[in-house]
Amino acid sequence: MLKIKNKKTVLIALTCIVALTLIVNTDIASAADPGDSFDTAKEIEAPGEFSGTLDESNDADFYKISLEPGSIIELEFTPDSEDGQKLKFW
Questions:
Q1: Report field, pTM of the whole predicted structure over 0.70
Q2: CA pair distance 17, 74, nearest whole angstrom
Q3: C-alpha dihedral sign at 81, 84, 2, 39
Q4: E-assigned strand segments in the chain
Q5: Mind listing the pLDDT tens digit of every residue in the chain (90 residues)?
Q6: Rounded to whole angstroms, how far apart are CA atoms 54 and 27?
Q7: Is 15 in contact with 85 (CB distance < 8 Å)?
Q8: CA 17 → CA 27, 47, 56, distances in Å?
Q9: Alpha-carbon torsion (36, 40, 46, 50), positive or negative
Q10: What are the boundaries of each domain within the chain?
Q11: Closest CA to 48 of 27, 32, 19
């Protein structure tokens, strides 16, 4: 579990093939592809639940979440293979 202090916005970049579950309210598998950069990051609202799969190894999806100070983000992801999976926070 990751606790974020004094940050209102967390930008999540999901890279490579991952299945991700986190507390937000959207569907990564929907026809509307999330943003492919910081500038086009899809804004999602918490609390909620989100899960999905990235199908391409070169895919990068960006999400923006606005949180209150002291909020907790709970993440769980399972890569399909051992190489190249990255989960980054900015």
A1: no
A2: 19
A3: negative
A4: 2-3, 9-15, 18-22, 42-44, 50-53, 60-66, 72-73, 75-79, 86-89
A5: 455 544 444 433 332 223 233 333 345 545 456 677 888 888 887 777 777 666 666 667 788 888 888 888 887 777 666 666 677 777
A6: 12
A7: yes
A8: 16, 25, 6
A9: negative
A10: 2-79
A11: 27
